[in-house]
Structure formats: structure tokens, C-alpha cells
Design goal:
This protein has 272 residues and is an alpha+beta fold. The chain has one domain: Chondroitinase Ac, Chain A, domain 3. 29% of the residues lie in helices and 33% in strands. Strands 1, 2, 5, 6, 7, 9, 10 and 13 form an 8-stranded antiparallel beta sheet that branches. It has a 5-stranded antiparallel beta sheet with strand order 3-4-8-12-11. The longest helix is centred in the first third of the chain and has 25 residues. The radius of gyration is 19 Å and the shape is globular.
Length: 272
């Protein structure tokens, strides 16, 4: 498990340019590099899909909680980096989609000139999960008339991102019971022009996310994001700068003023 994650990371570093090479500026070299990046992202998505299959849970459980957390965080980070290496090597404006059972990825190089529509991910097949960026956000963060964007939706990765140190906003119902905290949604990543862990927005990002478990045992939804260190690949769930817009038995809608890896955490009680 850990070796597979490390292998993805090594392959990613091999794609990262090592310096300026005049020969690499030729169209043929650039086209070859774009193809290599596309193949890498396709293989990366297929690998992550396999790692998140239900039958892979036994292998994950052989790791300690801390090892699971580091491996899952490394996956989040590596997939995002791989997405931006592809975005940076697209020779023209384009949208690349890779959809599997457990991970959906979209990489875009877009023009920010003219009248832009708001952007929604995924464009199809979200199964009740969606994230929206305003046209104003796209224009504000454009560079030289273009913007590069990465979206990823992970179905089961929240199982391996510990809620032990999660910051939770608790209602009276949760405070009056013995509860545990679970990640009760897919994890959705949204990132722009990759520079740092978080991009801050004047227009909040809005996301609606489907609950994985839809029962009365789960309550008190929290709009959360995975705050992690790139140096140690460890992190925790935080609610900072995120707020709840609405919720029902099946879905929760949130807004946040930054872009990162989002999920809905809920209090959980065992009903006997």
C-alpha cells in the first residue's frame, strides 16, 4: 500500500521539468510531453481507483491510523500535483476528464477573456455531488488571460483520514450524547493555479455533497477541509472559513472562502 503511493510520487517527480532545455521547446517535444502527462494522469487515476476499492480496505487496515493518514494525504497531494503538471503541459485550452468508480478527475486550461460562465464540477455523473466556482473567481485568479483548474472527487478516501483531532462545531444534540466523528461524504478537491495549500477567494466556493450514510445515527454536519503539512504529510480536519448553508437527510451544502480538500464530517451515535 505505502509502496504504491510512493511509486506514484516518484513517477510524478520524473515528469517535473528539471530545467530549461532549448530542445524541449520544439513542438514535437512539447506534444510528446503532453501525451506523457496524459498517460501518467490516466494511470494515476486507475491506481487510486484500485486503492479505494472496498476490497482494498483489508490492506489499509494493516496500516496504523497514522500510516493510513500519511498514505491518504500523500495520495491527495500527489493527485493534485499530477493534475497541475498535466494542466501546465496542455498545449491549448482544453478540459481533460478521467472518471472511474472511486475517483473522478477534471483538469482544465481555460481562457478568462470575455464573458465566462460559472464553473461546475463534475459536469456529468456527480451522483448528487457538485462544486461551483463563480466566473468572478475565475477572472480574479487568471494569469495572462488563462487559468488552470483541478477538480477531484474521491469516494472512500475519508475512511483513512482520521477525525481524531477534528475541529467540530457542535449543536446541543451532539453535546448531550456520547458520539464519535465520521467523514460522511466523499472528499472533493478544488484547486486553481497550484501555488500553495490554499487559495483564498472573495466569492466563496459552494459545494453540495451526498452523505455516505443516510440514517438518524448521523447528525450535526460540519463543513470541513483537510488541513495538512506538505513536509510531513500529516493533517487534521478543520472548519475554519467554512459555513453550513443547508442540510437534509441525504445532502449538505457548504460555502468556504478558500480552495482545498473538502468533506462533511458528522457526529455518529450507535443506536441499539
Amino acid at each position: 500500500m505505502v509502496q504504491l503511493v510512493d511509486l506514484l510520487d516518484v513517477q510524478l517527480r520524473n515528469l517535473t521539468p528539471g530545467g530549461k532545455d532549448s530542445a524541449a521547446r520544439s513542438l514535437n517535444k512539447l506534444q510528446k510531453r503532453e501525451r506523457s502527462c496524459r498517460f501518467y494522469v490516466q494511470a494515476m487515476v486507475e491506481t487510486v481507483n484500485n486503492l479505494l476499492q472496498p476490497q482494498a480496505q483489508a490492506a489499509w487496515r494493516q496500516l496504523s491510523t497514522a500510516e493510513q493518514l500519511r498514505a491518504a494525504t500523500t495520495l491527495l497531494d500527489t493527485v493534485e500535483q499530477g493534475a497541475f503538471i498535466l494542466a501546465d503541459n496542455l498545449l491549448k485550452t482544453d478540459i481533460v476528464q478521467e472518471n472511474t468508480e472511486n475517483i473522478q478527475l477534471e483538469v482544465a486550461r481555460m481562457s478568462t477573456d470575455g464573458n465566462l460562465p460559472d464553473l461546475k464540477f463534475p459536469q456529468t455523473g456527480g451522483q448528487g455531488n457538485s462544486i461551483h466556482l463563480s466566473a468572478n473567481t475565475l477572472k480574479q485568479h487568471g494569469r495572462n488571460g488563462e487559468i488552470r483548474i483541478a477538480f477531484v472527487l474521491y469516494k472512500h478516501i475519508g475512511l483513512y483520514l482520521s477525525t481524531e483531532n477534528a475541529s467540530m462545531k457542535l449543536g446541543s444534540e451532539a453535546m448531550a450524547t456520547n458520539y464519535s466523528v465520521i467523514v460522511n461524504s466523499p472528499v472533493v478537491t478544488a484547486a486553481i493555479n497550484k501555488d500553495s495549500n490554499k487559495v483564498y477567494l472573495s466569492d466563496p466556493v459552494i459545494f453540495t455533497i451526498r452523505h455516505l450514510q443516510q440514517s438518524e445515527e448521523n447528525f450535526n454536519p460540519n463543513c470541513s477541509f483537510w488541513s495538512y503539512s506538505k513536509r510531513t504529510m500529516t493533517g487534521f480536519w478543520s472548519t475554519q472559513d467554512c459555513r453550513l448553508l443547508g442540510t437534509n437527510r441525504t445532502h449538505t451544502t457548504c460555502s468556504c472562502t478558500h480552495l482545498t480538500n473538502f468533506a462533511v464530517l458528522m457526529a455518529h451515535v450507535d443506536v441499539k
